[in-house]
Task: structure prediction
Amino acid sequence: MIVGGIDIGSLSANSVIMQFVKGSSEGEILSYSIIPTGVDDYLTAKTAFDEALKKISIKFDDLEFIVSTGYGRINIPFAKKNVTEISCHARGAHWAFPTARTILDMGGQDCKVITCDEKGKVKSFIMNDKCAAGAGRSMEIMANILDVKLEDIGDMSLDIKDKPSQITSTCVLFARSEVVELLGLPPGSCARSN
Result:
C-alpha cells in the first residue's frame, strides 16, 4: 500500500510518500520533499507531492491514501483524512523513534511540546499562545535583520561572549523593532530584502 502525507505549515510544506504492508505498521519512506508554503494550499500540496514523486517512479494516482495536516490541512481536497499536527507528530515520532516520549516542534508560527505514550498516542501538549516570538518565523526575521543565513543563527548564539542585550520574548514585531534600534538601523529597515 503506497500512501502520502502532506503537512501545510506556515512556512513550509512537507510531503512524504511511504509504502506499507497492508494491515501492518511496518513501512518505509520512499520519498519526501520540503518546499516553501505558497499562498494557495492546494497548489502548494500538489507541488510538494510532485517534487517527491519526481524522485521515484510512482504517479500521483498510485497513492492509495493521503493524509493532510498542518495549518492548511482542511484546504487539501485530495486528502482522504486530515489530522492535527499534534497527533501526527506523536505518531511519526513513535514510528521513527519508538522510545521517544517527548516531541519538541519549533514551527514557523508556534512552538509545541508534546508527550506521548508507548504506542504514540498523545498524552498532553502545550504550545505558545501569544505571538510567533521565538518560533521559526521570528528566527527568520532576526536572521534577515542581522544579514546572516538562518541556518547560522544557532551556531552564532553559542559563540556569544558578552551578555547579550535583552529583547522582548512575547512579540516578534516588538523584538524586531528593538533589534533594529539596537543595531542603529533606520526604522522600518531590514538588512536584507528577502
